[in-house]
Specification:
The complex is a heterodimer of chains A (443) and B (565).
Chain A (H helix, E strand, L loop, with lengths): L14 E6 L18 H10 L7 E3 L7 H5 L8 H4 L2 H18 L5 E6 L21 H13 L4 E5 L6 H6 L6 E8 L23 E6 L5 H19 L3 E6 L16 H11 L3 E4 L9 H12 L21 H19 L9 E3 L2 E10 L4 E10 L8 E7 L3 E8 L5 H17 L3 E5 L4 E4 L2
Parallel strand pairs in A: 1-2, 1-3, 3-8, 4-5, 4-7, 5-6, 7-8, 13-14
Antiparallel strand pairs in A: 9-10, 10-11, 11-12, 12-13, 14-15
Chain B lengths: L1 E6 L3 E7 L13 E6 L6 H12 L9 E5 L2 H7 L6 E6 L15 E4 L3 E2 L5 E3 L3 H13 L4 E6 L7 H14 L5 E3 H4 L5 H31 L6 E4 L5 E3 H6 L8 H12 L11 E6 L4 E7 L2 E2 L7 E2 L2 E2 L8 E3 L5 E6 L2 E8 L18 H7 L8 H15 L4 H25 L6 H6 L7 E5 L3 H12 L3 E2 L7 H8 L4 E8 L4 E4 L4 E4 L6 H14 L6 E12 L3 E12 L11
Parallel strand pairs in B: 1-4, 4-11, 5-6, 5-9, 9-10, 13-21, 21-22
Antiparallel strand pairs in B: 1-2, 2-3, 7-8, 11-12, 13-14, 14-15, 14-18, 16-17, 19-20, 23-24, 23-27, 24-25, 26-27
Helix pairs in contact in B: 2-6, 3-4, 8-14, 9-10, 9-11, 11-13
The chains are: A alpha/beta (443), B alpha/beta (565).
């Protein structure tokens, strides 16, 4: 049979899209995280005829289960008080996307879903930075259970530091977390400095690349080529997940970067993730339709050179030479610290066999202040179990105990003992035994 | 009386029926005839079938003639459409060179409208004129003009249309992308407009020929044309929008099934799979909640994906005339066809492979003309492969192929994406309660099909001419999309040629009334809403407003008493 001249060109790689705009869900009517956020993106993707391209397929999201959330999060106010159906669909979308790739149905997958998740930490007292539960972490832990994968790299390209994902994987040596973002000294949530390198037992598994405001296409690509690509090549993850925030775009109303849609495409070419999960990005008219299109075309191995924003001019996405110089020096610093994490202070103190830190966490979306005391058991055999004392003005005190996937049997037992003792005292407590994929609570 | 005609690959069927007494009978028609379809032209078969079915009848008693033809489809499949130039305004996005065939005359023009229909780059009329003159110089008289997001704002398309008429002449076929459909999909809009422009003259000639034939046969009634969405439109409308009439075959058949429900025994499944087996091909389609299930996007024709509203179908190159062969020890049915079946041939045709119909004759499932001819050919084929059970193996292979396609069709339907939490939680899975077999070989295949398909198989009376019956009884359909943006102050229903200014108070209620009234104006009353969505929007500069998207349709259905002409 002769080649059909009118068929759209096949994608260079097959790509599964799970598109879920949640048109019936918003934080509030005027909130940036509202119904219309993906409206124009959907129209753009439809109008481009993207779903007619052989190799690009659209998939209906599954629903995540409460156990998927509990595999990742402790929720002192109660699971049902911090989540609603939208969160289960959003996480379910990411899981559906991941299953496509791990079952070999598609080479790559992109979950274009909302609400986002990368500001949600291990303990969830409420919403932070428009996020309640961590979509990527829920997906990754489900993959680890269902597909037996271990080494996963997350590359967070949202303009805001992915502090939630960093917190969840802070003590996990099997997860390489790389965040490239606008310098925390100039943008929410403030964290993500170069010397944040992971917990005392997982030093170097967290990598932060804080870029100065006004970084454009060349600046991002420089950082990606000098830092991200070499680290991924060296670390050899089984799976690369991109937290695809789109607020680095030069039109974003909240952040101050200058990446173009084509710049995003080139960034994707460099990172080459198996999976992408949509995070932030609130220039819903000027950026999202074009950025999402470029990302999709790049992931599918198709040409994105004509995805040029209306009225775009070179100066809108250029990077000043002094910023390029700065990024060059930053790359050296980041790589140096990654290789010699002992050169920076991890901020924990030793108390009776535990690494301990205390901190305050603010939930800006819900206006909640949380006090946390984190105790990591310093086990010579394993990454150690984690005890978190948490309290918030609204919910009072509770305890969260986690025994990680790689915990030794002694640590699993000790962690469970602490939980049982707390329960016997009548105090509220949660317990996650990740090796057994078991979650318990007494309230 | 009503007349329905359906052009198939092998035969053109025609039925004459009494519009008030066709239901619940063993033979629900007054008369059914068959005329052979000519390979190169559909008109002679249509005219012959029409003449035969009218023979001895009073032409004044006929209230409507409906033709379901393969006219446009065949023209495109054989490359006999008119040479057509395409002017495209793609703006930002995928490079159109990626999805447009090299041989076609595509000219990319500057200009752009964005996803809200806001003009973000101006057209270049000079460049457009230059492109049009180049078309004219090549002898290209037909033209399609298509802009990205034109259903949201057809201005740039309309400007190009005016230029095209100036340059190519006032009678030149010029098709606007946004005229055919208000749905989004730029590549499909390009192909749809191309089909419309390139078939305008062919369809016009066919329409005139039908009108002349009607006059000659002293018919004094409307002539309508079957569409792929299982509805009909007037002969004149079909000449203006010929693409919509392509792929009407399965639609006519499914309407025939709908017309024949409930089947004897009172069975009237609301979700069913239609298997229409003709001489050349087998079409699958679905009835969901008693309604024909339409495809999400549109018809694909001659490799061109379009926005033509069409049934959600599968077409398999497998039918009664499919040639049987052993392929490395496995039975193969089709895709080649060779008609007629040996058993049906008036005389010995010499050495020739048997067809699926011959296999059914050998199995004693069909009693036709010369069973010995079928037997001999099947024996020869068996001997060649050293087997004895050939006939059954071929029929089973055919049924297995149908089962696979049906399963894949259902999987496609049941995994369709949804976009709201509510839809995700309530969307049902479509699981047909029964399969309905129609077409020539239906009766013979049915007893074996039940096991193969794993569901009850029903064969309605008049299964062999259900297609023509469906055409006779299908009612008009129409689909319109409304798009409104209160911050832009515009509302458009391009497929109905409507565009107007609105103020900031324009809301969903008003929009629903507008679209239903516009459809009623077109004779489509009552119409129903397919979806009606309103999105609050917040523009950094313009403030708060809303975007409204509505699709309304007069869905496919049978002519009701009062509608019968």
């Amino acid at each position: 049979m002769s080649r059909d001249p009118h068929r759209l060109p096949p994608a260079g790689r097959s790509l599964g899209l799970v598109f879920f705009p949640a048109y019936d869900w918003a934080i509030s009517p005027t909130h940036p995280e509202r119904e219309e956020r993906l409206l124009y993106t959907q129209d753009q993707l439809r109008e481009e005829g993207l779903f007619d391209i052989p190799g690009i397929s659209e998939h209906k999201p599954g629903l995540a289960e409460s156990e998927d959330v509990q595999r990742v999060h402790f929720t002192p106010p109660g699971l049902e008080r911090v989540t609603d159906t939208a969160h289960y669909v959003s996480a379910g979308s990411a899981i559906t996307a991941a299953d496509l790739v791990l079952s070999g149905l598609t080479d790559r997958a992109f979950a274009l879903t909302r609400p986002p998740g990368h500001h949600a930490m291990r303990v969830v007292q409420g919403g932070r930075g428009f996020c309640n539960v961590n979509i990527e972490a829920i997906m990754i832990e489900r993959l680890r259970r269902d597909h037996g994968i271990r080494r996963v790299a997350i590359v967070d390209t949202d303009c805001h530091h992915g502090d939630g994902s960093q917190d969840i994987y802070w003590h996990d040596p099997d997860t390489l977390f790389i965040s490239i973002h606008q310098d925390g000294r100039t943008l929410y949530p403030g964290s993500g400095a170069v010397d944040e390198l992971g917990g005392p037992k997982a030093r170097g598994s967290t990598v932060n690349i804080p870029l100065p405001p006004d970084t454009g296409d060349e600046g991002f690509l420089l950082a990606a080529r000098r830092i991200i690509r070499p680290l991924l090549d060296e670390w050899k993850p089984e799976l690369i997940v991109n937290s695809a925030g789109q607020d680095n775009h030069f039109t974003d109303p909240i952040a101050h970067m200058r990446l173009s849609a084509r710049g995003y495409g080139r960034l994707m070419d460099c990172i080459d993730p198996h999976l992408a999960v949509l995070e932030g990005g609130y220039s819903i008219q000027g950026a999202l339709p074009y950025v999402n299109l470029a990302i999709i075309l790049a992931m599918a191995g198709l040409d994105y050179s004509q995805v040029i924003e209306p009225r775009w001019q070179d100066s809108m996405s250029s990077t000043e030479p002094r910023i390029l110089d700065y990024i060059g020096r930053l790359a050296e610093k980041v790589l140096h610290l990654h290789r010699h994490p002992d050169r920076a202070d991890h901020g924990y103190v030793r108390e009776r066999g535990f690494w301990v830190r205390e901190r305050s966490i603010f939930y800006d979306t819900d206006g909640i202040s949380e006090k946390q005391r984190e105790e990591l058991y310093d086990c010579p055999q394993c990454p150690g179990f984690l005890v978190i004392h948490t309290s918030s003005g609204k919910r009072g005190r509770s305890l969260a105990v986690e025994s990680p996937r790689a915990a030794c049997s002694a640590c699993r037992q000790k962690a469970e003992d602490i939980y049982r003792r707390t329960v016997a005292e009548g105090s509220p407590a949660e317990f996650g035994d990740r090796a057994a994929d078991r979650y318990e609570r007494n309230f | 009386m009503l007349i329905g005609l359906d052009v198939g690959g092998t035969y053109t069927d025609a039925v004459l029926l009494d519009e008030n007494a066709w239901q619940g009978k063993d033979a629900p028609y007054v008369k059914a005839v068959k005329a052979p379809t000519q390979a190169d032209s559909v008109l002679p078969g249509v005219l012959r079938a029409l003449e035969e079915v009218l023979e001895g009848e009073d032409p004044n008693a006929v209230k409507r003639v409906c033709v379901s033809s393969t006219l446009g489809l065949n023209a495109l499949l054989t490359g006999r459409e008119d040479p057509t130039g395409v002017l495209a305004v793609p703006g930002p996005g995928m490079d159109p060179a990626l999805f447009w065939g090299e041989g076609d005359n595509l000219r990319i023009l500057s200009g752009a409208e964005d996803h809200r229909g806001i003009a973000v780059a101006p057209l270049d009329p000079g460049a457009a004129r230059q492109a049009l003159r180049a078309f004219a110089a090549q002898g290209i008289a037909a033209c399609a003009v298509v802009g990205k997001f034109s259903p949201k704002n057809p201005e740039q398309e309309y400007a190009l249309r005016d230029l095209a008429r100036q340059e190519l002449g006032p009678d030149a076929p010029v098709a606007c992308g946004s005229d055919a459909s208000g749905a989004l999909n730029f590549p499909r809009r390009l192909h749809t407009a191309y089909c419309n422009a390139s078939l305008t003259r062919t369809a016009g000639r066919f329409a005139s020929a039908l009108d002349e034939a009607a006059k000659r046969l002293r018919l004094n009634c409307p002539i309508v044309i079957m569409k792929a969405d299982a509805g009909v439109f007037s002969n004149a409308e079909a000449a203006g929008e010929p693409a919509a009439a392509m792929g009407s075959g399965p639609a006519a058949s499914l309407m025939g099934v709908l017309a024949l429900l409930p089947f004897p025994g009172g069975r009237s499944p609301r979700d069913l799979l239609m298997v229409d087996m003709g001489g050349t091909s087998t079409d699958l389609a679905l009835l969901a909640h008693g309604q024909p299930l339409l495809a999400r996007e549109g018809l694909r024709v001659a490799g061109r994906p379009t926005l033509i509203r069409s049934l959600w179908t599968r077409s398999i190159a497998l039918g009664g005339d499919s040639v049987l062969a052993w392929d490395e020890g496995k039975p193969r049915v089709g895709p080649d066809r060779l008609g007629p079946a040996l058993a049906l041939a008036p005389e010995d045709l010499g050495q020739r492979p048997p067809t699926l119909t011959d296999a059914l004759v050998v199995l004693g499932r069909a009693r036709l003309g010369r069973p010995e001819a079928a037997q001999a050919a099947m024996d020869a084929l068996d001997a060649e492969a050293g087997r004895k059970d050939g006939a059954r193996a071929f029929v089973d292979a055919a049924l297995d192929r149908i089962r696979q396609e049906a399963e894949s069709l259902l999987a496609e339907v049941n995994t369709r994406p949804v976009y709201t939490i509510r839809e995700l939680l309530v969307t049902e899975t479509l699981a047909p309660e029964a399969a309905v077999l129609i077409g020539g070989p239906a009766g013979a295949m049915a007893p074996l099909a039940e096991t193969a398909l794993g569901m009850p198989v029903l064969v309605p009376p008049a299964a062999a001419c259900a297609n023509a019956l469906g055409a006779a009884l299908a009612r008009p359909t129409r689909t319109a999309d409304l798009y409104a943006d209160t911050l832009r102050g515009r509302m458009s229903m391009t497929a109905l040629g409507i565009e107007k200014s609105i103020d900031h108070r324009y809301g969903l209620g008003e929009a629903k009334r507008d679209i239903l009234a516009a459809l009623a104006e077109e004779g489509c009353d009552p119409a129903q809403l397919v979806f009606a969505e309103s999105f609050r929007i917040l523009d950094e500069r313009q403030g708060r407003g809303s975007i409204i998207k509505i699709r309304a349709q007069r869905p496919a259905g049978l002519l009701r008493e009062r509608e019968r002409p």
